[in-house]
Amino acid sequence: MHERLSFYVPRNSLLHRLNPLTKLTLVFAFVLIAFGSGFYWMPHLLLLFGIIPLSFLGKVGREYLMAAFRLILPAAGFLFVMQALFQPLEGRELFRFYFLHPTLESIMYAFANATRIVVMVSSFTLLLLTTHPSEMMSDLTRRGLPPQFAYVIISTLQILPQMQAKAQTIIAAQRSRGLATEGSFLKRVGSLVPLVGPLVFGSLVEVEERAIAIEARGFTSTRPKTSLREIPDSRFDRIIRWSLILLIIVAFGLRIWLS
Fold first, then answer.
1. CA–CA separation, 215 vs 176, rounded Å?
2. pTM
3. Structural domain boundaries of the chain?
4. Cα 129 to the center of its chain, rounded Å
5. Gap between the Cα atoms of 174 and 252, Å rounded
6. What is the pLDDT along the chain (259 residues), one digit of tens a residue?
């Protein structure tokens, strides 16, 4: 059930036992420091000495690396190529091919931006792999976030795995009807056409089901909400959160001071 409804991978690790708000703070710390720090190599250091070691600490290193090679790195690589070739930055020209004339500065600029994107997506991937959506929703609502907003956030995080599970179900159903979904590249592309219709219309039906679920769960009720499971928030979690907030302040302070 976990694998179908979310990216969450159940493991017994320190990262899994942290409070969801602590892990959410960690994600924002990675993102804000990567984009806000004035040091060029900061995003690369965060990735090599922060996110990757944390993925193995959380015992989800294999799942993270699979997501990185399948999704994160291709997207970041595309961004790198586009910015390296088409970003008009003055500097030492590396080569010229028709209207393309990338410079060393444009390559460095594109590399830094691509790494920032990798850090941002990787940090959220790590959050999804080690935090069950229901735990995050319960903890956020307990801290005062309106249940409607919490439900929208969690539903958004579950869209991709749910659509992936629905797509696999549709593919299996099409195969049982004799549709060829394997073979050459053109044949696979052609098999996507009968997949798109049921996937899109099924997703539209789920929108109405989610609206009914919001009403059925009493999200509009003004009475205090209770939860069957209390999410622990230890002193260790609070120390980590305040330390991360301090790191963010220091990173932005250094950028202002050095600018």
1. 37
2. 0.76
3. 8-131+233-258, 146-216
4. 9
5. 53
6. 344 456 888 899 999 999 999 999 999 999 999 998 888 889 999 999 999 999 999 999 999 999 899 888 998 999 888 888 777 666 666 666 666 667 778 888 889 999 999 999 999 999 989 988 878 888 888 887 777 777 777 766 666 666 666 666 766 766 676 665 565 556 555 666 666 666 666 666 666 666 666 666 666 666 666 666 678 889 999 999 999 999 999 999 888 887 7
For 225, which DSSP code? P
198-224: b (≥16 Cβ within 10 Å) or e: ebeeeeeebeeeeeeebeeeebeeeee
Q: How far is CA 141 from CA 20, 28, 59, 198, 245, in A?
A: 12, 19, 28, 34, 22
> Are 5 and 155 spatial neighbours (Cβ–Cβ below 8 Å)?
no
Per residue in 14-51, pLDDT tens? Answer: 999 999 999 999 999 999 999 988 888 899 999 999 99
Query: 146 CB contacts (<8 Å, ≥6 apart)?
Result: none
Task: Name 100's bridge partners.
Answer: 97
Helices 20-36 and 235-258: angle between axes, nearest 10 degrees: 10
CA atoms within 13 A on the CB side of 68: 19
* DSSP, residue by residue, 160-190: HHHHHHHHHHHHHHHHHTT----SSHHHHHH
Q: Going by C-beta distance under 8 Å and a sequence separation of 6 or more, which residues neighbour residue 13?
A: 57, 58, 59, 60, 130
